[in-house]
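dumping this here so i dont lose it
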């Protein structure tokens, strides 16, 4: 296969001409993939002293064309030369050799952001994502919401009756997509309960390079001055979930994206809602109360204000994969204060909180899109030797 397409830097080129060239580059990538090849992109950055040429391969580029379009355009505007061609045929998903390219320990930090994942990883992750969610990879939007309650799905479907729904019943993590042009809409995924599901889903979501991920869940309130229905905005996490300890050591600090938290805080204030900011304790043990002495010791040491089973997991993967992330929880019970989650009161709380919770998060995303239409800054989750690619927010 010898197809090659190049975009040379040209500061005299019109906006329309540049858009046409970027669109053509994406067309070529899709054509190469459809013909059974991994499209390869080489970026030559004359401004980089230490890392002037970076490159990588892709799979299913149509699924995240919005992202490729944006990043290629920024690079060319910054003065880069972009070349699209191919070197090898795609590896079948049932070929044992595929696994040789999936080890994240082989990541090259100098290739990050645009070339974070190898083509084989993209291919299998998007296949698994379609399997778990019952929806196509191209349906996913740039703004991802995670929940573990059907009630949030109900509200989402009422708000967006034309959203894309799972194509079959019984999928493990059903997804719903409010689609907008250029993938600027919302995707809600019901990941179910527990950190293992949270890791599995976010591992695969990451290859789509979303603009943000937000956990929209419930939690146990741990402080005296919290009421059922109050909100918790995470400022940090106590990682007692265990599922990512081997991949990211516990001594690495994990915090939500500051700018995204500001938008969530503004949305909470607009709605005059009670909330607290602090550490969320994420556990793998749903019955943590049965080990009360040890659990309370950890809670006191971490100064946690709420406990759940997914938030730290999603935040850790957001950090690993360079995706802006945040957590907004609603207090559903206070097990340390004689208010455990019991069936009757819980159902009443769910009915009263579900719409407001989702409305607040959607409002925060609207604010983020207004102020950062090309995506939130990622400097806080970029390593010191990662390429800036094109501009300080890249």
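and the seq i came up w/
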């Amino acid at each position: 296969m010898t197809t090659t397409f190049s975009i040379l830097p040209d500061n005299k080129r019109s906006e329309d001409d540049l858009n046409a060239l970027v669109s053509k580059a994406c067309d070529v990538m899709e054509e190469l993939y459809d013909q059974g090849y991994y499209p390869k992109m080489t970026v030559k950055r004359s401004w980089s002293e230490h890392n002037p040429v970076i490159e990588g391969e892709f799979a299913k580029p149509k699924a995240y064309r919005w992202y490729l379009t944006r990043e290629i355009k920024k690079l060319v505007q910054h003065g880069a030369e972009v070349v699209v061609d191919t070197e090898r045929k795609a590896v079948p998903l049932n070929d044992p050799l595929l696994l040789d390219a999936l080890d994240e320990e082989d990541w090259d930090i100098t290739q990050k952001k645009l070339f974070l994942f190898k083509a084989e990883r993209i291919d299998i992750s998007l296949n698994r994502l379609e399997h778990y969610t019952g929806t196509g990879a191209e349906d996913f939007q740039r703004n991802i919401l995670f929940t573990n309650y059907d009630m949030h799905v109900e509200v989402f479907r009422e708000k967006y009756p034309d959203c894309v729904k799972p194509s079959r019943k019984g999928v493990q993590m059903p997804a719903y997509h409010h689609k907008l042009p250029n993938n600027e809409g919302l995707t809600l995924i019901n990941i179910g309960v527990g950190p293992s599901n949270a890791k599995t889903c976010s591992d695969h979501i990451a290859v789509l390079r979303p603009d943000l991920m937000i956990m929209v869940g419930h939690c146990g309130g741990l402080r005296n001055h919290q009421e059922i229905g109050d909100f918790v905005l995470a400022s940090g996490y106590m990682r007692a979930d265990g599922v990512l300890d081997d991949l990211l050591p516990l001594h690495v600090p994990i915090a939500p994206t500051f700018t995204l938290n500001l938008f969530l805080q503004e949305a909470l204030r607009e709605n005059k809602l009670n909330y607290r900011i602090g550490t969320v304790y994420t556990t793998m043990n749903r019955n943590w109360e049965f080990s009360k002495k040890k659990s309370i010791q950890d809670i006191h040491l971490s100064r946690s204000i709420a406990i759940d089973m997914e938030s730290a997991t999603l935040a850790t993967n957001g950090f690993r994969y360079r995706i802006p992330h945040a957590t907004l929880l609603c207090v559903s019970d206070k097990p340390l204060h004689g208010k455990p989650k019991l069936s009757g009161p819980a159902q009443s709380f769910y009915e009263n909180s579900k719409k407001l919770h989702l409305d607040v998060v959607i409002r925060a995303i609207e604010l983020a899109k207004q102020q950062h239409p090309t995506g939130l800054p990622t400097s806080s989750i970029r390593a010191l030797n990662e390429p800036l690619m094109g501009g300080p927010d890249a």
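Confidence is low (pLDDT under 50) at residues 389-394.
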